[in-house]
Amino acid sequence: MKNVVGILSLLLLLSCGETKECCVLPPITTYSFAQATARGCSDFYVYKELPEERLHLYISGSRTELGLNSTEQSFEMDAPSLKVEMHQFDGEIGSYACDDVANDQGEIISTWTAISGEVTLQITEDSISVDPWGTTFKMTAKLKNITLENAEKDAASIPDEIFEEVFVGWLPG
After folding, report:
1. Is residue 19 part of a domain?
2. C-alpha distances out from residue 102 to 68, 74, 85, 97, 151, Å
3. Is residue 37 part of a domain?
4. In the chain, % of residues over pLDDT 70
5. CB 29 within 8 Å of CB 50
6. Other CB atoms closer than 10 Å to residue 161's CB: what's the count?
7. Position 86 pLDDT exceeds 80
8. Domain boundaries, position 153
9. What pLDDT, on the 0 to 100 scale, is given for residue 69?
10. CA of 100: how far to CAs of 8, 42, 96, 97, in Å?
């Protein structure tokens, strides 16, 4: 495998003329949200943010469609209703998630969608409150070996991330 990468790199360099810039594939960038606070809402939307890097990482899905309960369950990226994405903003993130105030967030300049990896989900405390608008609960979500890709096919990696005991099931408003 190393030989194939080396040969491809050499071919890229050799194909560059003196008058044109050579395109080099960007390396996979690895991100860690370990120091960020996990937050959430809805049924379900859990997220962490890195304000200095202007990044917003989230996992969303439907508790019912995924059959979530108090047992830890693992899912691949193609599970129904499951979405793992990371948004990059042009400036301050603002109140992007779990907020019903219009126009109080920055502009998303790139969206990175998970193309591989594993998500583990578990309801850790169920039926905290039950009303006509929904049921609130706490959940833990874990990401393992996630690879994300943006529209330009640049890759990003999140080796391991945990969103622990996040209060969800409520709607902003």
Report:
1. no
2. 31, 35, 21, 11, 26
3. yes
4. 81
5. no
6. 21
7. yes
8. 26-168
9. 96
10. 49, 12, 9, 8
Q: Is 20's pLDDT higher than 60?
A: no
- Total domain count, the chain: 1
Checking DSSP bridges between strand 108-131 and strand 73-76, what pairing results, if any? antiparallel
Model confidence at 153, in pLDDT bands (50, 70, 90)? Answer: very high
Compute how many other C-beta atoms are within 10 angstroms of the C-beta atom of residue 153: 8
The total number of residues written for the chain in this structure: 173
- DSSP bridge pairs for 48: 57
* Phi–psi pair at 144, nearest 5 degrees: -135, 125
The average pLDDT across 109-134 equals 92
- Reference 125, options 134, 108, 138; nearest CA is 138
Using the structure block, give the residue that is written with the tokens 């992007």: 96
31 Cβ neighbours under 8 A, 6+ residues apart: 50, 53, 55, 57, 86, 156, 157, 158
In the predicted model, is pLDDT for residue 104 greater than 50?
A: yes
Peptide bond connecting 89 to the previous residue in cis, omega within 30 degrees of 0: no
